[in-house]
From TrEMBL, chain A:
It comes from the Bacteria. This is SGNH/GDSL hydrolase family protein. It comes from Winogradskyella ouciana. The lineage of its organism: Bacteria, Pseudomonadati, Bacteroidota, Flavobacteriia, Flavobacteriales.
UniProtKB/TrEMBL annotation, chain B:
Pfam families: MBOAT (PF03062). Its main location: membrane. The chain crosses the membrane at residues 6-23, 28-45, 51-68, 80-99, 111-133, 153-171, 226-244, 332-349, 370-388, 419-436, 448-467. This is MBOAT family protein. Keywords: Acyltransferase, Cell membrane, Membrane, Transferase, Transmembrane, Transmembrane helix. Coiled coil: none annotated. Belongs to the membrane-bound acyltransferase family. GO terms for molecular function: acyltransferase activity. It is found in: Cell membrane. GO terms for cellular component: plasma membrane. It is a multi-pass membrane protein. It comes from Winogradskyella ouciana. InterPro entries: Ac/AlaTfrase_AlgI/DltB, AlgI, MB_O-acyltransferase, MBOAT_fam.
Amino acid sequence: MKQFLKKVGFYGLLVVILLFVLDMIYTQVYKNSAPRNKVQYALSLENENFDYIFLGSSRVENTIVTSEIEKATGKKAINLGNQQSKLNDILLFLKILEYKKVKADTIFIQVDYNYNILKNSDIIKSQTLPYIRSNPLIKSYLKESDSTFLKNYYLPFYRYATNDYKIGFREIFSSAIGKKVSMDLSDGYLPLYGRMQPDRISTLPDKLIENNPAFDEIKSFCSTNNIKVLFFCAPFCENVKGVELIEELKIKIPELYDFSDVITDVKNYQDCNHLNNAGAIEFTKFLIDTFRL
Amino acid sequence: MLFNTFTFFVFFVIVFFVYWFLLKKNRIYQNILLLIASYIFYGWWDWRFLSLIVISTIVDFAIGKLIFSTTDKKRRKALLMVSLLVNLGFLGFFKYYNFFIENWIQAWETLGVSINLSSLNIILPVGISFYTFQTLSYTIDIYRKKIKPTNSVLSFATFVAFFPQLVAGPIERAQHLLPQFLSKRKFSYKHAMSGVHIFIWGLFKKVVIADTCATYVNVIFENYETMSSLSLVLGAVYFAFQIYGDFSGYSDMAIGLARMLGFDLMQNFRYPYFARDIAEFWRRWHISLTTWFRDYLYIPLGGSRTTKMLQIRNVFIIFLVSGFWHGANWTFIAWGFLNALYFLPLLLLKKNRINRDDITMNSFKNWINTTFKIFITFSITSLAWVFFRANDIQHAFGYLKRMLSELSLNIQFLSIERYAIELIGILVLFVVIEWFHKKSEHPFVGKYYMAKITFVLFLIITLGVFSSHEDFIYFQF
């Protein structure tokens, strides 16, 4: 039995060593390789100045054609919209930008039904995990929102194993060999192609929630740090149900720019919540005109 | 409680230490511990269904003794019937009730008659087919005077509920496993270490091979209407590896855990995808079920020692029943039927008993010949697995039709952000490892076994799917 326990103990030790070593390798690769997602890209920025920064979910990422802005105005813009981003995640981006001394004349933030979502995005969470021990902002972001924070923080490799889909072997391998991502992160716009079926619908939540603390914190953070921020609602197709939610939102946030109905032609949509490339260009032009960017 | 979870790890460590350190001098206490642990293990899913196991245990224990104590043939037969009725009654109700009701209604509806029978919202108790068959073999063997009943209800109850193999086998025979609960256990380093090694290999098969394949298979099968032929072929191949990795991985882990507790379970898989014909495949796949059907169904029906027509009938019966055992769905029956069709030419040409030897490739001609046979057997098996995986029979036919008619070899990008072909590398590595170790239970043998273990642990950590614990497929049976 003693011999057995020794041997099994040795295997256990081997596993622990592997976990430590792999955790170290993965973390170093993520820290030192070229950015492959927008969290990494935001963390790589340092002392940069932009005229406009756009934050939000895929309804920003697939909607704001920053190159169009630069082409039309000669001003520098970046789209930091990220798939599935919630207001908590947008707040994190704001904090990272401030921490990295990245300045912008105006920051545009998408607010719509995401006001109703209090939790964080799993995608952003997994993208931040490699920096849990090295970045205080990310540490506090995860500490507040992630129920597995302690395991992710203290157990070696736990974060990579349980988020294998996003930051596992395949992603680390791509990072290590410097494989490029499909979008230009310095621009940040990810076009969608194709058209939605005319009969496709999208349903917004019935009721607006009382309060979203992340939104309040975004406002107070911007005010404390003298950040000029504009809240806007990106377009929805005409088939959207429950658009009254946006009316409610306008009462709660009087400064909200409601662009939910500015693009009506169905050919400009990839689905009811997302513009296709043609629609995104049209909407970006609309923004340039409206705000005289 | 899945073997590949932290909860199970803690559970097993506690059981192991109490079993070998606190109770090592008393076999009865060890059995009590195993029984309690087994009931906790089972109750973790749904404690209500523990009652079924307890009833099966009491009924078969009592009937076993009654059959043995009487010489009256009619009474013995009647007692056996009671055991069959109780066990198969539970199985029939929980597993097949809705299937029969729905098909009965459908059959009448096709004749234009509408009948009003409602199906019930029945939850299938995990592993019911496994422990039912295990207890049945006990009473049948006593009836056949092959074994004597045990006097220890504790040992029998532990034999029925032994947690490593309770929910997905191997389906043990009383002849083999029960005596192990009746004798004193002695810890053997070699035996326990082989258990650890076979467990690690099983874990690799489950979390690296099966669960990775599952992520591709789910997408390909659910979106088959938009998939190219190549993607659909890959989907079928991936499912072949998923089910093999999942089920043989579970069996390996069960065998490994049992060995660490001083027990021996029967081998359930013997590298089935290296089979050179379908008969050999069935001698290597789910051996505990195949031999169960052979001993308790095929041979009583006359087996192969009867006329050709009856042999053909027997083959179809055994494969159809085997298919139906897996689940109350026409897909499983079609899968069984297809396997019977595959088997038929071998039976008619009297070639079902060739390829019983070890695979050797001592000449180039032999190499070509064997590789070709293995390839063909694997291909037709994978084709049949499509029925096994499909949601319903239309799904299966739709999948196969598109696979054989679409004829495009596009390498598609799936919604899981993977190319359909990406998994091939891991599977080739897996096949190579298995091929070079096909004469042993696991690859951790020889001079470099430590290096191999380190490598496999590395693969489990880096390539294993831990973000979602896929249930073991065979739990549903």
